Each structure stands twice: as structure tokens, then as C-alpha cells.
Amino acid sequence: MKTTYLTIIVTLLFAMGNASLMAQSYTSLPEEVLLQRLQPAKGKIQMVLDTDTYNEIDDQFAVVYALLSPEQLEVQAIYAAPYLNDRSSSPGDGMEKSYEEILRLMEKLGKSPEGLVYRGSSSFLESYEQPLASEAAQDLVKRAMSSEEPLYVLAVGAPTNVASAILMEPDIIEKIVVIWLGGKGLHWREASEFNLQQDILASKVLFDSGVPLIQLPTEPVTSHLHTTVPEIEHYLQGQGAIGDYLVQIFKEYHQDHYAWSKVIWDISAVAYAINPQWFSTEVLHSPILTDQLTYSFDNTRHFYRVATSLNRDEIFEDLFRKIESYHSSESKR
Question: pLDDT tens-digit profile of 140-150?
Fold first, then answer.
């Protein structure tokens, strides 16, 4: 009798702890297709960028980097993602500020936002049964489902828009590959970081849905993307309106620049899309994100790819040279 009760209790506890896994059924990709999608892309890729652009200053670098890489990336859309911190009064306010910042960047680059920039969700996901049908999520579903080639979704904020699109149209996982800057490394004490913890349900969708996912953890991977005021001034000051703007917001972010550096996390997703060879990665079974914001592991789960290191110098060199080249070409017009 004791064994029976214990079995029931363990079963119930397991079910409660894994409610997020059972609350939603997803389309399942054949394993060989999933593994193929997780391989580094060859040639120019079609992509969208989902970004909480005004949350910090690194998203601005990522937006510019993507738009100035036309030989490797075809940027089809840029989505404003929600965020909540001391630079916003609500997730919706953060999304609106991000939308406005994207427009500001487009203006400084002399590019039209028409048909390219979309507002995202004004809140975070609260239920798998109620995806947030923002302009961004709706555009992602429509764009992906009509694409013949896999559409790469570069997400560098809370993945609310992306998860909502998956929940709205589960078949979308057959059409997209997600490159997400979020969470910490699998061997870190906890998984929690800003992008992941802003929308925990949306983060669980990325890990649980079986969508082809490439995770770029913050610590101990993208945290190596540090730069300094002297380096930024040397390479970007005087490089047109966009170069000067990036220098300005970088310097304004912190009052004391003595022995100070700033990590520009978000360029990592763009860099991976441009050249995966700048990263060391592993294909593993997708982890389970627990309610305690730690990772749990089950080797019967689907595969995903996770970065373990990157080449900081190659990435920054590519970014700086593209901004310099863009300014040079604009100056000749």
C-alpha cells in the first residue's frame, strides 16, 4: 500500500513540475530534418530580427550589424520586443520605445522602415492557450509559412513574439530556425538571465516545442563580447551619423569610463548568422527549463544546438569594418 501511495505522489509531483511540457502539443519535426536545420547555413540566409532595442545599447549595434551585412543576410523584418526595467514603465512602454529606436536607427542609416519594422507584443506571455497576436507575431507566421527556404529568426530579447507565433501556428517550426541570445550556459548554477526571465513561458516554448533552436548563452559565452570607450571611439567616431550615434549611446550608458568596458551581447546572434565558424557549439538534447529557473536534462528529448565559446575579435572586426565601409560608400554618393 505504501508503495502504491508513493508511486501516486511521485507521479503527481512529476506531472506538476512538467505541466509546462504537457500544456501544449507541438508539431514534431523528423529527427533527421531537425538535425539538418541545426547545421550551419550555407550561403545568404533570409532572416528577421526580434529585438528589445531600447532596453540597453547592445541591440542598436545588432540592428546596424544585420542591416549592414547584405552579402550574408537578407533582413526581411525587424520586430520590437517588450521589456521591463528602469528604461521602461511597462512591457508595452518598452516595446514602443524599442520600436521608436529602430525607426531612429533606420533614419540614421538612410533606410526606409516601410514594410520592414513591426510593433511586437505589449505584454509577456501568461498562458499557452492565449498567444499574443501582435503585428510582429502575425507577420512572422505569414512570412515563415510562405517562405520556401528556412527563415532564420534572430531573437535577442524576451522571446514573446516568437513564442506567440509558434503557439498561433505550430506548423511554423517546420519553416524557421531560431537563433536566441538567452539563458546561461548549461553547466551554470542557474539558467536565469534578463531575456529568459522576462518571459519564462515564452522561453520554455523555445526549449520545449522542438523548433530548430540555436542557443547563445550569456555567461560564459556572449559575455566575452566586451569593448571599451577608446576602442569604440577609434573605430566608429566620425563614421557617419550611425557611427557617431553608437559612440554617443555607448559613452552615455556609464558615467565613469576609467577601466570600464561594456558587453555588447546582442551582436552575437547576427554574428552567428553571418559566420557560425566564429563559434564553438554542441548538438545536445534540449534542456528542460524548470520553474526554479534551472536546467534539468532528459536525453530522450529533441536535439538543439548550444554555443560554448566565440571569437570576440573576429566578430568586432567584422562589425567595425562594415560600418566603416558603409560610411565610405555613402560619402562617395
Answer: 999 999 999 99
